[in-house]
# Entry
Amino acid sequence: MTNLYGFIFQFIQLIMTLVLSPLLLGWINQCRYWLQNRQGPGVFQPYRQLVKLFCKDAVLADNASPLFRMTPYFLFACMCLAGTIVPVLATNLPFASVADVIVLVGIFALARVFLALAAMDIGTGFGNLGARREMMIGFLAEPALLMVLFTPAFISHSTALTTIVDTLSHTRFIIYPSMAFAMASYLMVLLAENSRIPVDNPSTHLELTMIHEAMLLEYSARHLALVEWASSIKLYDYFVIGFALFVPWGIASGNHLSSMLLAFLALFIKLAFAGFGLAIVETLSAKMRIFRVPEFLGTAFMLAVLGTLTHFLLEA
Amino acid sequence: MGFFNPDMAGILPISIILDILVYWLVIGFSGLIFIRNRKIVSQVLFPLGALGGIALLSITAFSITHSPTSAILPLGLPDLPFHIRLDALSTFFLFLLGISSTGICFFSSGYFSRDGNFSPGLVCLQFHLFLVSMAFVFLADDAYLFMIAWETMAMSSYFLVVTDHKVPEIRKAGYIYLLMAHISATAVLLCFGVLQKAGLQGIGGSYTFDMMRHLNLDNFWATTAFLLALFGFGAKAGLLPVHVWLPEAHPAAPSPVSALMSGVMLKTAIYGFLRVTFDLLHLQIWWWGILVLTLGLITAFFGVIFSAVQNDMKRLLAYSSIENIGIIMSGIGLTITFQSYHMQALASLALIATLYHCLNHACFKSLLFLATGSVLHATEERNLGKLGGLIHRMPWVAVLALIGTLAIAGLPPLNGFVSEWLLLQTFLLTAGFPQPYLNMLVPVAAAGLVLATALAAYVMVKFYALIFLGQPREKKLLEAKDANYWERLGLSWLASCCVLLGLFPVEVIKLLNAVPGLLIGQALGKVTSQTNWLFLTPISPDRASYSPMLFFSATTIIILITFLGVRLFYHGRVRRTTAWGCGYPMQTFRMQETAESFGQPIRTIFSPFFRMRSELPSPSDPAPHYHNITEDRFWYVLYFPIGRFIRFLSNLFGRIQQGRISIYLLYSFLTLILLLLLI
# Structure
């Protein structure tokens, strides 16, 4: 019976990933508008955007290959899968054992490689430029992300996210100094990987500064909708991974309906606060030049390595 | 048949393997009969060779768990017969040879059927001789046969490298290769000498590995033997700083030969190193492992950043081989360290990861080298900056090369990811060394490994996108033809190996598990005892688990549902038009990314590692010419000074040589007087 409940909750978690991610994006944007003394279109704007894009006619470039048309579906699937692996509501869901944190990083890398390939498929200048910059950020951010994940993996002697969450939240309450380094590094990686402001600007189409948007220039209508949706799911995934690592309290360890409701409530509060925090970071910082990004991500990488070293120095 | 064993004849796997090798030799020598007949050589002999590969693959997969068998061949010198032995380690490497050679032989049938500047029969002979000599390297059980097979391998591959010997660069590459091969062979020979001599107290003629196994060396001699093996086998594998021959020799050869050299021949060095370190030597000292780990990581990092700045597609792949050898070596380093502390479970996990990566590299690197062969044949262009858009002209090669690209970039659910996952798991488990500073080294080493693999993804996007995506950068690419049937068969074979090795890791590890049982003394228990083939759990499900099959099916299901959902609920209207030029009207295909521009971020970020000379035109130049040469510093720091020193020495000796007989007579007279005085 528990197995059946497990599958039901797993399914609920997938649906939540799909539904909540545009809402999260809308909330972050709305907070940003408020912080900038603007009215804003409301938190439901991303949904309207998706519906609009899904209704339009698709326009494809003459030399678009099947790879270009397949990529949006692929991205979408990768991000959804990542959302089901992370323990968002409960730690004992059946799908969690399919993959651990290293596989999670692999999934993000897979999605990135596909997007970069699709961007280079048409052969226009902007697609190429975006792909090159995205891959550059990727190879700098991916090691940093893995090193961030290694710190809790060393603490809990496991790379399975469920075990990490169990160790960090349920068994005992200790404040680990190494996790502070990891958290700082994780924030920097989150900003870079989701093309948020100090690294990239999600709302610009200025050629010199675009990274993520440059890769999507050739996409339209339903393909664009899927890619945009996948990007918002990616942001949501990064948020919930962050919650699982750094604020795991509230994630249920059993299948009881009450603890699930509690977990859901906790998730909602965490998302609201984190979204607001991201909006503040984005409002307070200016976009940096592309040449500075390696330094930024190099710092994140060093912080993450320091985190693991701190673990061995102080906590082992 | 060259098999002689009076006790049990005929049924042993070792005799079947010998039969296969004889069969390959027969095929090779029948190449001489049809020396000019391109059709028979390519359509009959090479496919027959592939059948040999399949046979080798099946027999080794079947017999890897058998206990070691040995035999004595009635060949060799009168009192020095050849000893051969088939144990788990040699069986595994023969399996690897079987997998790769099957695909490569099929591909060669297509590749060598096209016109070219070579004699097909000779290529056939050298090719099969190369295969047989590699197999004998794996089988040899004495230093004598090992060195003969090792030299035959070097010579036959040298002749294959210089197949197109009319091109001066290729001759130069062949020369460098030959030189390095012999330096490495000398070191290996010295290593065997140490192994045999140092323990030789009263035992005569111990050139067999069996004798070496039973000798107990003291620390000093063991370290000497180990360092010689590291240098000799490292030079053959392309370990830093003796890697410089690899990016010259591998691209110069015809593509199937490059595939064989990168995919299998580099592994013979890995095999030799494993054989000496774990089988012939009795003790392992912890700092050996740290040395190999460090060297491996430096090699991996160096290989990948150099591969990112290459313009030539085959050189890019050759540098990427250096990277992979680095990863394999770092795995061996971990294994040695664990073994020296008697942490056998971890040592066997590290060894499994290493062997898995060997197998993976044999598949995807061969696949990609073969794909460049098809591209080269279709376009006669190997500069990445002059290719592009081939996915439309060569869909077969494009799809199969995509699988190889994703596999080598270490992405799930393909095979490259499995070995990297296992290796990272090993790193994460390390926190139990008795020395605390070794524990601190682990995260740093893991960081290095992760950085190298992340960079590999960058390199592979560059490789794939510049060849197959975008618009054709040259007019002649419009006439490119897809690979022929044999080539497709070879590519598909290797691509499906990449997929299968990625999706069924538990089954593969069950096969590999015999090797740590032999070398470490303990096999990985958990993987095989757990009957669940879906989940790869090297230690326990709590610690880490990965199920590529479920991952793959879940992705497929989500893609299908999304696709159907989009199909069902929304109209499918699609309009085709020219790409949006962002308001710039005069865009041409020449304005796409080139190999240089894609490598630019790497060149800037890691600039201290390269030796660069660039020529940037001024903005007002009416005929601008951009020029950038990125070179390996090792040539200038290490090799050219050595070369200059040798030239200086030979000049000194040259002074003595005057070319006049009277002076030489004077020399002999003086020597005679000197000797008389001494005695």
